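Protocol step 4 of 6.
Sequence for Osmotically inducible protein OsmC (Glycomyces artemisiae) entered exactly as in the expression construct, tag removed. Do not edit the line below.
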Amino acid sequence: MSVTRNARTRWTGGLQDGGGVTSFVSSGLPDTPVTWASRANDPEGKTSPEELIAAAHASCYSMALSAGLGKAGYTAEEIVTEAGVDFKPGTGITGIALTVRAVVPGIEKGEFDEIAAATKDGCPVSQALKAVPISLEATLG
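Step 5 output, structure tokens:
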């Protein structure tokens, strides 16, 4: 069975001088302002499509890594994933850098690295974003 999650952005004005509010329809999380300036310059408390993609990728990767470790017989004490989405005005999204640090009792570094790399390629958000180069830095401990 498929599940659909919804978000909505209401935008007013032009690209440079306008702004919008993104609403998280499915979860009811607080509305978040978004502007071109927050995308191309200093965020000043507002979000951007790239930050929203980074949040989706970091959370998806963490869940997928937890699942991959579980299939191999391990349970992580902690997984911390950060995703950096690079945006170049006029070009678009040019790359995504995933950085993960995990504490996983009993796993060897080589096995952890293999699972982490397979997760980078296999997590659903990575799959959706595979048109963009995705790098991974994985640290155990």
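Step 6, annotate. The mean pLDDT is 96.
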